[in-house]
Amino acid sequence: MMLVEETTVPQSALPVTQFKDHLRLGSGFADDGLQDTVLEGYLRASLAAIEARTGKILIEREFSWTLTAWRDERRQPLPVAPVNAITAIMLIDMGGDETFADADAWTLEPDNQRPSLRARASCLPSIPVNGSVRIGMLAGFGPDWGDLPADLAQAVMLLAAHFYEYRHEATQGTPPMPFGVSSLIERYRTVRLFMGGRA
């Protein structure tokens, strides 16, 4: 299985100005925008870290997910949430030839924790022998910063500020996820059960 981020978070969606206010950086100087690129980098790092920890996509963008077999032929859980649309399902044979799956054979089952691809009839489209299926998805809470739940937006700001504060001490073992951030994102984490254990 391989998940690929097809588009990135646009610069316009990043709250650089709000982050400056959060850090209480001075304003009104000729070099106000000098640190914008650096601050943007910490915001992107914070977004990525929280998305990795929760399995939730914060700012909406496109992904593709390739797999070689369905976990269940009637219902396939998707690897990220929330998923707003399935853009395409492509069946790929062993020679690399691609065919669109019949859109009437499947439907998106939305869920904030574990969205799924569900068969409309008896089963999902058949994956070619020694082939694969690629699922295109539009995932995220929305295209703008204001679409994030308030607690996740606060968690991003806190973690980005933590990265900024300890930017010169990366080799000294600073904790990657401060307690306040962990508390804010805890309810968004997905607990997966496999063979009686947690993952």
Structure description:
With 199 residues, this protein is α+β, with helices and mostly antiparallel strands. The protein has helices at residues 16-23, 36-54, 150-165, 179-185, and strands spanning 2-5, 61-67, 75-77, 83-92, 98-100, 106-109, 116-119, 132-139, 193-194, 197-198. It is built from 4 helices and 10 strands. A hairpin with a 5-residue loop joins strand 4 (83-92) and strand 5. The longest helix has 19 residues, at 36-54. The chain is elongated and about 55 Å long. The model is unreliable at 193-199 (pLDDT under 50).
List the SSEs and their pairings.
Elements: E1 2-5, H1 16-23, H2 36-54, E2 61-67, E3 75-77, E4 83-92, E5 98-100, E6 106-109, E7 116-119, E8 132-139, H3 150-165, H4 179-185, E9 193-194, E10 197-198
Antiparallel strand pairs: 1-2, 2-8, 3-7, 4-5, 4-8, 6-7, 9-10
Helix pairs in contact: 2-3, 3-4
Secondary structural class:
alpha+beta
Strand segment count? 10
Whole-number mean pLDDT: 88
* Overall geometry: elongated
**Cα distance, first to last residue?**
17 Å
| N to C succession of SSEs | EHHEEEEEEEHHEE
The helix content is 25-40%
Residue runs with pLDDT of under 50 for 5 or more positions: 193-199
**Per DSSP, what share of the residues sits in E-state strands of 2 or more residues?**
15-25%
The rounded Rg comes to: 20 Å
Number of helical regions? 4
Q: Taking strands numbered 1, 2, ... along the chain, how are they ordered across the largest sheet?
A: 1-2-8-4-5
Sheet having the most strands? 5 strands, antiparallel
